[in-house]
Amino acid sequence: MKKNIKLVSILIINYNNAKYLERAIKSCLNQTYKNIEILIFDDKSEDNSREKILKYKLKKNIKYYFNKKSKKNIPALDAFNGYDHLFKKSKGKIISLLDSDDFFKKDKIARIVKLFDFKKDLLFVQNLPIEINKHYSKKKKNKNHFISYWPYLAPESCISFKREFYKEFTKVNFKYKNIFQNVWLGFRLGVFSYFVKKNFYCLNEHLTFYEALGQSGLYKKFNSLWFYRRLQSFNYIYNISKKNIIHKLNIDYILTLILSFITNIFNNKKNA
């Protein structure tokens, strides 16, 4: 392998996703771009994920870690801690995130490396996802949500960035990590790139298969927790951008605040 070819670190976090985990790992091993390292973090899975991971223990470019610390049992925060642990163990100049129930097209890493080589000043990029489940697959478009104030933010498995970007992000994000516990790492990274660094780029190519599982029940769209997380997301933007009041003077935030209040009252009456 030529020394001038950039090493790319693919970070995979897993919790009880043994069913899909190998598919994710194989999609990394089958990349056309070969100078990669694969790091896997298992967050105390209760299925046979450990067995699946250990099948690859002889692969030189795969490293794996099993969480030995206590979990917070807050999905967004636990995922954040897992990715952060892997980042500290990684060596790549470019980092790509991958949830264990998602997987990459075989040329994804090659396309990402080529983009970073072409746009020398680029720090952060997200590609577009192909949403899949048992019955269908559909390509997500690069567009805003129904009243979105922030840009379209793809799932974490669509995100790649340079090493120095994440180092700078952690310095700014550190004091907010445990305050906004329901805000996912992917959102935080996108917000930091878009509002703080002014270095946000969306690659209009579908390079990641995204399994729409996990939080769909807990954060079902327009339920009280969905609005609460959205409100936390707005407050995260407000704080990380040095409390610029303009982030609270838009219709998106005002509607979220009102509807969060209403759904919370309705939910309390329902559970009374």
Gist of the model:
This protein is an alpha/beta fold. 39% of the residues lie in helices and 19% in strands.
How would you portray this structure in words?
The protein is of the alpha/beta class. The protein has 2 domains: 8-214, Spore Coat Polysaccharide Biosynthesis Protein SpsA, Chain A (Alpha-Beta Complex), CATH 3.90.550; 216-272. 39% of the residues lie in helices and 19% in strands. Strands 1, 2, 3, 4, 5, 6, 7, 8 and 9 form a 9-stranded mixed β-sheet that branches. Strand 2, helix 2 (49-54) and strand 3 (62-66) form a beta-alpha-beta unit. The longest helix has 21 residues, at 251-271. The chain starts with 7 loop residues before the first strand and ends with a helix. The mean pLDDT is 87.
What are the SSEs and their pairings?
Layout: E1 8-14, H1 18-29, E2 36-42, H2 49-54, E3 62-66, H3 75-89, E4 94-99, E5 103-104, H4 108-118, E6 124-132, E7 137-139, E8 159-162, H5 163-173, H6 185-197, E9 202-211, H7 224-240, H8 251-271
Helix pairs in contact: 6-7, 7-8
Keywords, separated by commas or semicolons:
2 domains, 8 helices, 39% helix, Spore Coat Polysaccharide Biosynthesis Protein SpsA, Chain A, 272 residues, alpha/beta, nine-stranded mixed beta sheet
**Whole-number tally of structural domains:** 2
N-to-C order of helices and strands: EHEHEHEEHEEEHHEHH
Radius of gyration equals 19 Å
What fraction strand?
Answer: 15-25%
**Mean of pLDDT:** 87
Continuous helix count: 8
- CATH C-level class of the largest domain: Alpha Beta
**Secondary-structure class:** alpha/beta
Number of strands: 9
Percent helix, as a range, is: 25-40%
Shape: globular
